[in-house]
From TrEMBL:
Organism, scientific name: Massilia hydrophila
Keywords per UniProt: DNA-binding, Exonuclease, Hydrolase, Nuclease
A Pfam family annotated for this UniProt entry: 5_3_exonuc
Domain of life, source organism: Bacteria
SUPFAM superfamilies the record matches: 5' to 3' exonuclease, C-terminal subdomain (SSF47807), PIN domain-like (SSF88723)
Coiled coil: none
SMART domains: 53EXOc, HhH2
GO molecular function: exonuclease activity
Name of this chain's protein: 5'-3' exonuclease
Domain 5'-3' exonuclease: residue ranges: 5-259
Classification via Gene3D superfamilies: 5' to 3' exonuclease, C-terminal subdomain (1.10.150.20), 5'-nuclease (3.40.50.1010)
């Protein structure tokens, strides 16, 4: 088997929502149509920039997923997708298919889980490099396993050094960091009064979330008390930020093969 493959996993709604929200006009069919035209160009630019051999274009299926089953308040503060954009998405998916892409949206999981499953399988099978096109912090955990993240909007690579600089921890500790500090955009609670710097300091001192709980969690300090009092919330938060890597994708690598024009 050739080692020269290159998988590009595109976080579809990450691009679509960013493009749509960059326009100040009120929600309308016209705004959705213009945004999706720009989003399609973004997809084309990403494909041209990276010339992948395989492409996985992932979108959220919509509706409740396994995280809501764990924690009904998951994402409750996040604004729903504007109706004109939601209604225009099926046609956009069709355009992507006509351009030779497989569009993957799996019920009861998020696009992040679909991407994590595909990227981890690709890397574990030794098929070559893996690139994730996203600005989503959760997906940066995949850098710990050998993937790179591409920020299409800033035209920059995110690697191990970038994660350490931005979050203060190694990529493999990113989910522990997000569990401690919480993630308001997703409604992940975290531990009260722990921000990114405190979370990073704890993880770098103790080495992992389990070690933080075992060590800092017995301290006779307000921080130790909070860690003890909110242990269950912390365990829940860690499960919410975890990416699933066992999603049934329903596609083969041959189906994800991409011929650049």
């Amino acid at each position: 088997m050739s080692k020269q493959g290159k998988l590009l996993a595109i976080d579809g709604l990450n691009i679509v929502r960013r493009v749509y929200e960059a326009s100040p006009e009120p929600d309308s069919d016209l705004k959705a149509s213009i945004a999706l035209r720009h989003a399609f160009s973004s997809f084309r630019n990403v494909l041209e920039a990276h010339a992948p051999t395989h492409v996985l274009a992932a979108f959220d299926y919509g509706g409740p997923n396994w995280r809501h089953a764990l924690y009904p308040r998951y994402r409750e503060g996040r604004a729903a997708m504007p109706a004109p954009l939601r209604e225009a998405l099926p046609e956009f998916h069709q355009r992507l298919r006509q351009a030779g892409l497989q569009v993957l949206a799996v019920p009861e999981v998020e696009a992040d889980d679909v991407i994590a499953t595909g990227v981890m399988r690709w890397l574990q099978e030794g098929r070559g490099e893996a690139i994730v096109a996203t600005t989503d912090k959760d997906l940066h955990i995949l850098i710990a396993h050998g993937a790179l993240v591409w920020d299409h909007f800033k035209n920059e690579w995110h690697d191990d050094a970038w994660v350490r600089q931005r979050f203060g921890v190694a990529p493999e500790l990113l989910h522990d960091l997000l569990a401690l500090m919480g993630d308001p955009t997703d409604g992940v609670p975290g531990v009260s009064k722990i921000g990114m710097k405190t979370a990073a300091r704890l993880l770098n001192a103790y080495g992992s979330l389990d070690a933080v709980m075992a060590g800092a969690g017995i301290l006779k300090t307000p921080l130790g008390e909070r860690l003890r009092a909110e242990r269950e919330i912390l365990v829940l938060s860690r499960r919410l930020v975890e990416l699933r890597t066992d999603v049934r994708l329903g596609v083969s690598w041959n189906m994800l093969a991409y011929e650049s024009a």
